[in-house]
């Protein structure tokens, strides 16, 4: 151990002696011999340390580096005091100096000053916006039970990582992108992304049976649709309807004479119920097009044909009222063929049956035609698994709450199941058939009334059966957010279009008055029909704005809302409000319009809108007079005014008033136009002169009268728009 201590002391002494020889300049100017001797002395001392083995020392005579076994030890810079002084002088003069010499001279780096450069004008590039969620109308994808994350991401056009992140946020656990998803989770993910979905249900392994056809009766108003159904059912509903017309969408199961059963949907024929007819065509298998033999093809007949073609549904034509003396079925067939309907008699595939609902003639032929069409279509549906149903109507009952009339399309609907209907959800408390009889379950093609929903759904919504209440709540909340997002997007687009059109037509666009309204009706379908009909009454002068639309009787909250926004309340097929509500409406000066017939409702609303319209000012000729003589008053004093010319006239048409504007015509051309300064009859100042009377008048600043000239009396008239109703039921406001 002694030699180790001596060795360490020797190394330290040698290093101190070698590194403290003189100043920095002396060390740099040391000769190669001194460096060589110092190096040999150092490595002689290193040999006493354990772990260091050096075989030889290589010192090149002309080398810059002294190394041991190819290892760098010392480097000679070959610098002298003279060279160092010259480098310092160059730096003081501002000449370029390397960074290494800056370190040696200053002991630290110095930042180079940046030269000021003039700014460069570059074009502005807007930042790239993130891709927003697509709206409901942009994209629709098909989803099904058991689709994987990869398939869902491909359908939605998003990355797998994004879809996985959304799945985790909704509370679902996944292990890989190939895990199957339930159809409810797939819909939640799609709604979060911003796309619409279409549910597909597989029938593999399901029990499929034949089902009854669903037949929708469509046609023009007052062509006998409900009377035909009454003849088939042996009832008399048409006599009980308000105004003698159908104003609701009804569903019935009719047992035919052959023993088969057919589900019928009765649709209104008035022009205001176009959405109801579209819903009926969307859920049906066959459309019965009823045409009156004495009336022929009418506008709603053509609309029913277009609805059936859009839904790709076969048509069976029933020519009704063939018992009337002026009935002409052949003319009806020619009109239908002219509209592009291929009838069997003309080589097509559309069956035509001549019937009479009053005399019950041809009903057996209509039954055979419907059953034959259903047999050709080979209608069947699965009866096991979750049910698929379609809401045809919804209403609010005072004792039972929200009720939805639906037709089951597939599966079996059972009491106690949790369902999601549009953005509403609930647990089915009871199921009733159309005879209000409680049943435990509903099979395909059965119209039923469902009770137990948490809110009133929209007519046309699909009924989806889910496994638990939690899943029903989650799906309902997701749909509510999606609907609200789409609604706000649509409002923003409409606001943008409106602002652009206002900027373009700021000078030519007449003054427009906004008329707010609150619509209340008995069922959801009529609410939508009345709302659409009221909005169709918009014109260039009046903008009808429906601030609220709901199902049920008029309440105090409706009165408060109407008072706050100055709206008129429109009630259709609702009971009269109680005396307290009527008194509150009178005190708040809120108008309530109650009707049970759509014709009367639209006429009343149309006249109300006409009253609210500001109208347009027009110049009309109120009277004409012919100049018979001219009188001049000269030399008048300054107090009485300047000289004047008086035209002695006789009124040949209409009436002259002193406050009106007068126009002087000569040979049919306008010579002068100005206000009336004086109007006298028999030396008395008068305000008006009627037809056949003589008068004297003075036009302000006009002195060029001639015998035979014609003077017209002009008045400004405020012309109101006109409410127009056609025979087909369509209404409009003409300005």
Describe the structure.
The structure is a single chain. This protein is α+β, with helices and mostly antiparallel strands. The chain is built from 18 helices and 36 strands. Strands 7-8-6-9-10-11 form a six-stranded mixed β-sheet, sandwiched between helices. A six-stranded antiparallel beta barrel has the order 13-14-20-17-16-21. A six-stranded antiparallel β-barrel has the order 26-27-33-30-29-34. A hairpin with a 5-residue loop joins strand 35 (722-725) and strand 36. Helix 10 (274-283) runs parallel beside helix 11 (299-310). It is extended and about 115 Å long. The N and C termini lie far apart (120 Å). The model is unreliable at 1-6, 19-32, 49-78, 124-137 and 236-245 (pLDDT under 50). GO terms for molecular function: GTP binding; GTPase activity; translation initiation factor activity. Belongs to the TRAFAC class translation factor GTPase superfamily. Classic translation factor GTPase family. IF-2 subfamily.
Low-confidence stretches: 1-6, 19-32, 49-78, 124-137, 236-245
Q: What does the radius of gyration come to?
A: 48 Å
Q: Give the overall shape.
A: extended
Count of distinct strands = 36
Adjacency order of strands in the biggest sheet: 7-8-6-9-10-11
Helix content estimate: 25-40%
**Mean pLDDT across all amino acids:** 76
Query: Strand portion, in percent?
Result: 25-35%
Structural class: alpha+beta
How many DSSP H or I helices? 18
What characterizes the major β-sheet? 6 strands, mixed
Span between N and C termini? 120 Å
Subcellular location: Mitochondrion
GO cellular component, one term: mitochondrion
Organism: Olea europaea subsp. europaea
Region (Disordered): 483-509
């Amino acid at each position: 151990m002694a030699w180790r201590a001596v060795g360490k002391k020797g190394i330290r002494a040698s290093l101190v002696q070698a590194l403290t020889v003189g100043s920095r300049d002396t060390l740099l100017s040391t000769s190669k011999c001194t460096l060589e001797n110092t190096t040999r002395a150092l490595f002689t001392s290193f040999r006493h340390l354990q772990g260091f083995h050096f075989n030889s020392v290589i010192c090149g005579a002309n080398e810059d580096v002294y190394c041991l076994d190819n290892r760098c030890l010392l480097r000679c810079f070959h610098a002298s005091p003279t060279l160092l002084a010259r480098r310092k002088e160059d730096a003081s003069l501002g000449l370029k100096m390397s960074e290494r010499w800056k370190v040696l001279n200053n002991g630290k780096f110095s930042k180079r000053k940046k030269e000021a450069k003039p700014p460069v004008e570059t074009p502005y590039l807007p930042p790239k916006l993130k891709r927003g969620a697509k709206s409901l109308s942009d994209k629709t994808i098909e989803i099904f039970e058991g689709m994987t994350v990869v398939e869902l991401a491909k359908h939605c056009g998003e990355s797998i990582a994004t879809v996985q992140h959304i799945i985790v946020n909704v509370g679902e656990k996944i292990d890989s992108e190939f895990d199957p998803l339930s159809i409810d989770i797939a819909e939640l993910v799609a709604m979060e992304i911003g796309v619409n979905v279409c549910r597909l249900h597989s029938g593999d392994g399901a029990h499929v049976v034949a089902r009854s056809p669903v037949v929708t009766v469509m046609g023009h108003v007052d062509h006998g649709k409900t009377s035909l159904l009454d003849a088939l059912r042996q009832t008399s509903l048409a006599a009980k309807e308000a105004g003698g017309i159908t104003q609701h969408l009804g569903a019935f199961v009719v047992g035919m004479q052959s023993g088969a059963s057919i589900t019928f949907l009765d649709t209104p024929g008035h022009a205001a119920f176009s959405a109801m007819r579209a819903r009926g065509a969307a859920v049906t298998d066959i459309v019965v097009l009823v045409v009156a033999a004495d009336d022929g093809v009418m506008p709603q007949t053509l609309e029913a044909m277009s609805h059936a073609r859009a839904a790709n549904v076969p048509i069976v034509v029933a020519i009704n009222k063939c018992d009337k003396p002026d009935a002409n079925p052949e003319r009806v067939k020619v009109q239908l063929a002219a509209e592009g309907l291929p009838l069997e008699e003309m080589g097509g595939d559309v069956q035509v049956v001549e019937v009479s609902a009053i005399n019950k003639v041809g009903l057996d032929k209509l039954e055979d035609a419907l059953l034959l069409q259903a047999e050709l279509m080979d209608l069947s549906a699965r009866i096991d698994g979750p049910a698929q149903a379609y809401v045809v109507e919804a209403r609010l009952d005072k004792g039972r709450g929200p009720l939805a009339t639906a037709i089951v399309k597939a599966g079996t609907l059972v009491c106690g199941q949790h369902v999601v209907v549009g953005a509403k959800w609930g647990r089915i408390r009871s199921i009733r058939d159309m005879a209000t009889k409680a049943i435990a379950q509903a099979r395909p093609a059965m119209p039923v009334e469902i009770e137990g929903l948490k809110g009133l759904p929209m007519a046309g919504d699909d009924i989806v059966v889910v496994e638990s209440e939690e899943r029903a709540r989650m799906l309902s909340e997701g749909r509510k957010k999606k609907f609200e997002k789409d609604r706000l997007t649509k409002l923003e687009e409409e606001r943008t279009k409106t602002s652009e059109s206002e900027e373009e037509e700021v000078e030519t666009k007449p003054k427009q008055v906004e008329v707010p309204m609150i619509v209340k009706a008995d069922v959801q379908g009529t609410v939508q029909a009345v709302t659409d009909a009221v909005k169709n009454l918009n014109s260039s002068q009046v903008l009808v704005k429906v601030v609220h639309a709901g199902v049920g009787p008029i309440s105090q909250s409706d009165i408060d809302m109407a008072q706050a926004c100055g709206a008129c309340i429109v009630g259709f097929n609702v009971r009269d409000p109680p005396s307290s509500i009527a008194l509150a409406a009178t005190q708040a000066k809120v108008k309530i319009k109650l009707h049970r017939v759509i014709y009367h409702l639209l006429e009343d609303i149309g006249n109300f809108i006409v009253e609210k319209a500001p109208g347009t000012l027009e110049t009309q000729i109120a009277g004409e007079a012919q100049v018979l003589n001219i009188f001049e008053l000269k030399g008048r004093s300054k107090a009485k005014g300047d000289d004047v010319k008086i035209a002695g006239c006789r009124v040949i048409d209409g009436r002259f008033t002193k406050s009106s504007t007068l126009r002087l015509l000569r040979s049919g051309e306008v010579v002068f136009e100005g206000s009336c300064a004086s109007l006298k009859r028999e030396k008395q100042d008068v305000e008006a002169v009627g037809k056949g009377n003589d008068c004297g008048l003075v036009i302000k600043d006009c002195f060029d009268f001639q015998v035979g000239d014609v003077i017209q009396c002009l008045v400004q008239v405020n012309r109101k728009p006109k409410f127009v109703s056609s025979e087909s039921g369509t209404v409009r406001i003409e300005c």
